[in-house]
Write a structure and sequence with these properties.
Strand content of chain B: 25-35%
Radius of gyration of chain B: 17 Å
Oligomer: heterodimer
Number of strands of chain A: 22
Distance between the termini of chain B: 42 Å
Helix content of chain B: 10-25%
Largest interface: A-B, 52 and 55 residues
Shape of chain B: globular
Largest sheet of chain A: 9 strands, mixed
Shape of chain A: elongated
Strand order of the largest sheet of chain A: 8-7-1-6-5-11-10-12-9
Number of helices of chain B: 4
Structural class of chain A: alpha+beta
Chain lengths: 524, 216
């Protein structure tokens, strides 16, 4: 707390008028990107929404008029508004599309920070003097963002990022630039509803207690709010009182930065993303060891440049950097996501022509509060294992570490599918339920080894009964079980007989079809 | 249900549960390097999965799969919690040693196939890492032998036999003859017959460990 106070005091001394934060908000940016990508109809008149993992994150005005709300489940939204068109959010594409806007803003004010694609904040105290005032600065930034591909951009200017974002959000439609005078900031915040805190649990509790606006929350004694709601309540009370966290109040500690050097340069985006995940794991471990977590991270890369003819120019690497900010301390996954989105954006923009030679993550805006770990799971062990898996993926490729999901089926290959570690398991395929009867499936025990691609095997038979396998005498056998499935589909069609054959070297699962005998699995 | 974990001589142990509620258990220490070896088809993979089963209920465990053939269904039947079991595919000896060292750093229990060609020095370094980090590693060399003094204990699969089928029914009953050696079984070699998938220990076939009388 003392060091935060010193940082605030230092900021006040540098800027007598106090710190000022400028926020550029492009409302419903995921919707805009989905329309550009063709995932939603380009005609904006129909109700449309974008979801992330089944939760609505952006909705058009028409959809909102029908009752669709952010944070709603997709199914609920579709039941409220049957004509709703829904697309899945692609954070990588959203970051890529936002990169030109970020570059345009950064050409006016340096040290831009991105909270999420479509929302950027920047400390603007110095720029106000350079451009001759708050209004002139905000309008210059608005014009830059508009001309860079964000025609619906809104700009807010206030003391801290919370108020600046709300100023951008509530700017009038006919003049989407709102500059809040520091003295008028409390008056602006007071009538706003507590839902702007974007914490549904806290908001619900506050409403039940009869507290509906930020002004009502600000009038409560802070000690009472902390006693009732803990750290979450303290943060909310501070925001309601206009005591916002300022962007980058402290200088980054270079000691905590982590980097990876790539020789030869990494050109494949997917491998780069897994390297970023590995680095995020290392950074999280470093921070956790010191009881720290970061509100922002600087992603910095060096790339092999190419000349005008596209030839590589090794030895003269181009350096790029971008800072990402979050309202909450960044978890390992959040760090990895932001690094991946940024790398995708640079790669798609052709800014990494010769591949990546260096990747560095620097934690910014550190807090000593740490992150809350789960009570019922050994989250530390899971995080430790996750870091190991990420390092292996960086070494061997993303497909080298996988989890398995069971599903229904008849053959030994059909009963499971793999999911890469770190990626969410997609819902079970509708046509492969585990609990369906699957007539013709093999009884347990399951073979311990399943040959990835069935191979031909030499089986000698007499009167239709197998007598030897690869020169070994058959000791016993079971079968045949006839399997004929998907006869209507030439690609999936199977017509064969399963046999379980035991020899001196173990038991095998083999199949006899029109093409001969094939080995499918071993009961090792 | 019998808890798979208990303490013995001040050391944390785990047991392979029997299918019937019998007190007979295959007692193995929860830490250290265990070599599991046997001829092809003798049930080495089933044994590795059964060793991971009780440990997978508590947190992340890993199976280092060199051949890329191990079946998750067999793992589930052997008692592994698939939410916690991660399959790592590392076919080449160079990357295998590196991947295993990363796993030892972060995962409490690992079952690993070892490809031919891993240098003995790398294996010794890995064994030291296992002991230093207090992990459990069950290692099976694929058609080669580990250095003699590397592991804390060995499970040698002597052979397996399936119930005779003769064209009727399906594979079901199986018996594996195993010999346990080394510190993990407290220095006493014993031979048992186990039946997958839960490696049921047939109590009547297990000879009692020899007891040495000292100082009479």
């Amino acid at each position: 707390v003392r060091s935060e106070g010193r940082a605030l005091e230092a900021t006040r001394q540098r800027h007598p008028a106090g710190p000022r934060t400028l926020c550029v908000l492009v409302p419903e940016w995921p919707l805009e990107v989905a329309r550009q990508a063709g995932a939603l109809p380009s005609d904006p008149s129909g109700p449309a929404a974008v979801h992330r993992q089944g939760i609505i994150v952006a909705a058009s005005a028409e959809a909102r008029a029908e009752g669709v709300r952010l944070g709603q489940k997709r199914r609920e939204a579709e039941s409220i508004c049957p004509t709703l068109t829904v697309a899945e959010s692609d954070p990588g594409a959203e970051a890529t599309a936002f990169e030109p806007v970020a570059l345009a803003i950064e050409s006016l004010i340096p040290r831009l920070e991105i909270a999420e694609p479509g929302l950027a904040i920047v400390s603007a105290a110095g720029a106000l003097r350079y451009y001759g005032g708050a209004d002139a600065t905000a309008r210059a930034v608005h014009e830059a963002a508009r001309s860079a591909g964000a025609p619906t951009a809104r700009v807010g200017l206030a003391r801290g990022p919370f108020a600046a974002r709300l100023a951008a959000l509530y700017a009038p439609a006919n003049d989407p630039v709102l500059v809040l005078d520091p003295a008028a900031e409390p008056d602006f915040l007071t009538p706003l509803r507590v839902s702007v805190l974007e914490d549904p649990l806290l908001t619900t509790s506050l409403r039940r207690l009869g507290i509906h606006t930020l002004g009502e929350l600000a009038t409560l004694p802070r000690s009472a709010v902390v006693a009732r709601f803990g750290a979450v309540g303290l943060e909310a009370h501070r925001l309601a009182c206009g005591e916002d966290r300022l962007p980058s109040p402290r200088q980054p500690s270079d000691d905590l930065a982590v980097e990876m050097i790539f020789d030869p340069p990494l050109a494949d985006l997917e491998t780069t993303a897994f390297a970023a995940r590995s680095l995020a794991g290392t950074l999280t471990a470093t921070l956790e060891a010191q009881g720290l977590s970061a509100f922002a991270v600087k992603v910095e890369v060096e790339a092999e440049p190419a000349d005008s003819r596209g030839r590589l120019c090794p030895g003269s690497a181009d350096s790029l950097h971008r800072t990402w900010r979050s309202l909450d301390p960044l978890s390992e996954r959040a760090l990895a996501d932001r690094a991946r989105w940024q790398l995708t954006a640079w790669s798609e923009a052709g800014m990494l022509p010769g591949g990546l030679t260096r990747l560095q993550l620097t934690p910014l805006d550190l807090t000593g509060h740490g992150r809350q770990l789960s009570l019922f799971r050994d989250a530390a062990a899971e995080a430790e294992a996750g870091r190991s898996f990420a390092r292996i993926q960086a070494l061997l490729g993303p497909d080298s570490v996988r989890r398995a999901v069971l599903q229904g089926g008849r053959g030994p290959h059909d009963h499971f599918r793999y999911v890469r570690h770190g990626e969410p398991a997609s819902p079970a395929q509708r046509d492969r339920p585990c609990d369906a009867p699957w007539p013709g499936h093999l009884p347990p025990p399951a073979p311990a080894l399943v040959v990835p691609v069935p191979t031909r095997i030499d089986v000698r038979e007499k009167e239709g009964i197998p007598r030897s396998v690869s020169g070994e005498e058959v000791l016993s056998f079971a079968g045949p079980w006839r399997l004929r499935e998907a006869w209507w589909d030439s690609e999936r069609a199977r017509d064969l007989e399963w046999w379980q054959i035991v020899t001196a070297s173990g038991a095998r699962l083999v199949a006899r079809s029109g093409d001969g005998w094939t080995l499918h699995a071993l009961y090792d | 249900m019998i808890s798979p974990h208990f303490r013995w001589n001040g050391e944390q142990m785990f047991a392979i549960l029997t299918r019937v509620p019998s007190p007979s258990r295959l007692q193995l220490a929860e830490r250290g390097l265990l070599e599991v070896t046997g001829p092809p088809g003798s049930g080495v993979t089933s044994m590795l999965l059964a060793l991971l089963g009780p440990l997978s209920g508590e947190g992340p465990v890993a199976y280092l799969d060199v051949r890329g053939e191990v079946s998750p269904v067999a793992a589930a039947e052997a008692g592994c919690c698939l939410e916690h079991l991660v399959f790592v595919h590392a076919p080449h000896p160079d990357s295998w040693a590196k991947a295993l060292s990363y796993l030892i750093d972060g995962v409490r229990a690992i079952a690993a196939e070892a490809p031919r060609g891993v240098p003995a020095s790398a294996l010794r370094a890995l064994a030291g890492r296992v002991r230093a980090r207090r992990r459990f590693l069950a290692l099976t060399p694929l058609r080669w032998s580990l250095p003699a003094d590397l592991a804390n204990g060995r499970i040698v699969l002597l052979g397996s036999s399936w119930d005779v089928l003769q064209g009727r029914g399906a594979l079901s009953g199986r018996q594996i003859r195993v010999r346990l050696e080394g510190k993990l079984v407290h220095g006493s070699a014993l031979t048992a017959v186990v039946t997958p998938p839960l490696l049921e220990l047939a109590p009547e076939l297990v000879p009692a460990p020899e007891r040495r009388v000292v100082g009479r």
